[in-house]
Amino acid sequence: VKYSLHHFKLFIKSIGYDDGINAKFITEDLCRQYREYLQTAVKGETICNYFTKFKKVISKAYEDNILKKDFAKKIKNKKDEGLKKHILNIDEIQLLAYAHCGNDNVKRAFLFSLCTGLRWCDVKALKWKNINNNTLSIIQSKTKDSKSATLNNALNSTAIKLIGERGKPDENVFILPSHTACLKDLKVWVKNAEIEKHITWHCSRHSFAVNLLDSNVVGADVKTVSGLLGHASIKHTEKYLHYIDERGKEAINKLPEINL
What we know:
Radius of gyration: 21 Å
Shape: globular
Number of strands: 3
Strand order of the largest sheet: 1-2-3
Helix content: 40-55%
Largest sheet: 3 strands, antiparallel
Distance between the termini: 58 Å
Number of helices: 11
Strand content: under 5%
């Protein structure tokens, strides 16, 4: 909601309303223009996610008689199929491990996310009391009200090395700056590793899932990966299979043509 509002404010300024607008300016056409603006401002599933939040606000405003009509109701907001975010393969993760990062906590935390699939918000809030006997036990902040919110996952040897010397129970494992600052450090770090991909923090979660499912790396089944990610349903995990299928098609298409 916060970032959808942020982009709506930017959109309003882009069409000439520097001082903002009030309810009487909201129309179906304006809502449609905002959806089109998001397609140029953000990428992948984020477009649909931000506009979904916006539609809920417009609907609530109509219910509360702030707006005379639910102007966004008829606007289609279909989520793009497939995984649009870049995935880091094992070789690229190794390149990152070797490369210099300006903030050691950011480097260790991101590599930890690649080993565990944790979101940035959960890594930032991670405390030593959440790690015992080489096992990670947390309640995911994004899904804290669902049955699948609690994770109890074993940590591999790399993850254990990344967390370093144990601190006090209520101390944070990683001392991280703001999300924006983390992304800036990550961008420079990826460039230092000579990886030509647009990598955000959430790419670590996608990479974790794909590398687990990839038969050339681990070859885990969907149900296992779904549990490790804390998904409420394997439907959320199956999108990663689509990515692997697409990668297989690309590999086949690269086979040399045979003259017949």
